[in-house]
Design goal:
Number of domains: 2
CATH class of the largest domain: Alpha Beta
Bound molecules: nicotinamide-adenine-dinucleotide
Radius of gyration: 23 Å
Helix content: 25-40%
Largest sheet: 9 strands, mixed
Distance between the termini: 38 Å
Strand content: 15-25%
Structural class: alpha/beta
CATH topology of the largest domain: Dihydrodipicolinate Reductase, domain 2
Mean pLDDT: 97
């Protein structure tokens, strides 16, 4: 399958060098061939030539090339929409980088255009296959910690907002669109229930016009809550995941470089008659005293690896009509709706009570 890449920055290159290559290494029946790239930056074009890739003179040239079946759009976020509309019109199947668009309206227009043209359209929500995410999801579904009533999902850096366009609102900058879209997509895949409330505060500590982080709390119909924190000014990291369950707690403390480090702690004895209190601060507490080791069981995480080739295998199979796309329109629209309610909540400082 010949696929061209429009926008050959960090992520455009990832698609060619990592995603296509990993998929091809699985020796599928049908390989993916990079038909070429287009980028407005001569420097990026030169880089692509250095990798032996064909560089097209314009996106239109790609759209006009009948040997190309699909395109990957990996430009800054504000240019996704025009390229998606043009690609659909040209009859190309489309992979668009996340966030698919700047808002729900744009996303609907993209799906409508693809449906009208009879082409497949999918945002690249690759973090559905992250090892840490799959590991905690599996842990909860096995039920060994009982029911999970609160989840905290965090990503914390100390390097500010990267690059130039991510700092510009009109280009779709800000951490909600950058990371929120991934972590909310994960959340809605984790808790398959109606959302009933949204509360969010964006932070603007870096003095840019876009958010450099946010804290989002989502309530679900059963009473479960899910908190997402993104911060770009955290010099000390809290766990990537913390799962509060009826019979125990789990944390993922490291998720960099394909590690998934953490533990789960399961309660063996609910009421510890030998519990002694501790001095804590200017006081004394039994409630917050640590558990005696005899009353709990500490287990390493059973790490489950996400399939890093699943996205492209599904795309190829879907284009050939052998399976449906994994990433569904309704799921993406729900993520965008939630992001819009988060912004509304942050602007008004109100809990938004809406069921969807
Ligand atoms: N899925 C993920 O894990 C992931 C990770 C990083 C970035 N992304 C997404 O990928 C997209 C690109 O991000 P990036 O980090 O690669 O940014 P980047 O700045 O590294 O690359 C963007 C590229 O697009 C080019 N470009 C700009 N305007 C263009 C135009 N009109 N036509 C063609 N090319 C144009 C730029 O010259 C640049 O080379 C964004 O949507 C981003 O959110 C996704």
């Amino acid at each position: 399958m010949r696929i061209a890449i429009i926008g050959y920055g960090g992520m455009g290159n990832f698609h060619y060098e990592k995603a296509f290559a990993r998929y091809n290494n699985t020796e599928p029946d049908e390989l993916i061939e990079c038909a070429g790239i287009y980028d407005i930056s001569e420097e990026r074009c030169e880089f692509a030539r250095g990798l032996g890739l064909r560089v097209f003179g314009s996106a239109e040239e790609i759209f006009a090339d009948r040997s190309i079946e699909a395109v990957v759009i990996a430009t800054p976020n504000d240019i996704h929409l025009p390229y998606v509309l043009a690609a659909a019109k040209a009859g190309k199947h489309i992979i668009v980088e996340k966030p698919a668009g700047l808002g729900l309206d744009e996303v609907k227009r993209m799906y409508d255009a693809a449906e009208a043209a009879g082409v497949l359209f999918t945002p690249h929500q690759n973090r559905r296959w992250d090892d840490d995410y799959i590991t905690v999801k599996e842990l909860i579904s096995k039920g060994s910690l009982g029911e999970c009533y609160r989840i905290e999902s965090r990503v914390m850096g100390a390097n500010g907002i990267p690059g130039e366009w991510r700092k510009v609102a009109a280009q779709g900058g800000g951490m909600m669109l950058d990371w929120g879209v991934h972590l909310i997509d994960q959340m809605l895949g984790f808790i398959k229930e109606e959302v009933t409330s949204v509360y969010c505060t964006y932070s603007y500590r870096a003095g840019e016009e876009v958010d450099d982080g946010f804290a989002l709390e989502v309530g679900f119909k059963s009473g479960k809550t899910y908190r997402v924190v993104v911060d770009t000014n955290s010099f000390v990291e809290l766990p990537r995941w913390q799962l509060y369950c009826d019979d125990g707690t789990a944390v993922v403390t490291d998720w960099h470089n394909f590690k998934v480090e953490g533990r789960s702690v399961r309660c063996l004895v609910r009421k510890d008659d030998k519990l002694e209190g501790v001095s804590a601060g200017n006081g004394f507490t039994k409630t917050m005293a640590r558990r005696r080791s005899e009353t709990v069981e500490v287990l390493p995480l059973d790490v489950v690896r996400g399939d890093k080739t699943a996205f492209y295998r599904n795309f190829v199979e879907a284009v050939r009509g052998r399976e449906a796309l994994t990433i569904k329109r309704g799921e993406i629209e729900r993520v965008f709706k939630l992001m819009e309610l988060a912004k509304l909540s942050s602007d008004t400082r109100e809990v938004i009570k809406e069921s969807f």
